[in-house]
Specification:
By secondary structure, the chain is of the alpha+beta class. It is built from three helices and four strands. The protein has one domain: Alpha-Beta Plaits (2-Layer Sandwich), CATH 3.30.70. Strands 2-3-1-4 form a four-stranded antiparallel β-sheet. The longest helix is centred in the N-terminal third of the chain and has 16 residues. 8% of the residues are buried.
Length: 99
């Protein structure tokens, strides 16, 4: 079992940024309740794309949460603001981590 980063890049639908930001507390709370969750960082790139970086205790726990998120909170305002065609998600094993 190796610590894993979940790296999700995406764009928002036009006119949804305020609702997306306001609704992210729900996403963070949901993630915090998932087995293996360690931390989350949300960032906006200069080109307007977003990066959601989530640390998990293991790849298996990350994949399990990914399989559940849409059924559990996919209808929330923040999730609905994301352009589904723009989503790119990947996982990477952590090989070095420093505070």
């Amino acid at each position: 079992m190796s610590e894993t980063l979940e790296i999700v890049s995406f764009r928002l639908k036009p006119g949804t940024e305020a609702g997306f930001l306001a609704g992210n507390d729900l996403i963070s709370a949901w993630l915090a309740g998932q087995p293996g969750f360690l931390s989350r960082c949300l960032a906006r790139r200069d080109d307007g794309a977003w990066i959601d970086l989530v640390r998990w205790q293991s790849r298996e726990q990350a994949l399990a949460a990914a399989a559940r998120i849409m059924a559990d909170i996919g209808d929330c305002e923040a999730m609905q603001a994301i352009d589904p065609a723009s989503v790119d998600m990947g996982h990477a094993a952590v090989v070095l981590s420093k505070p």
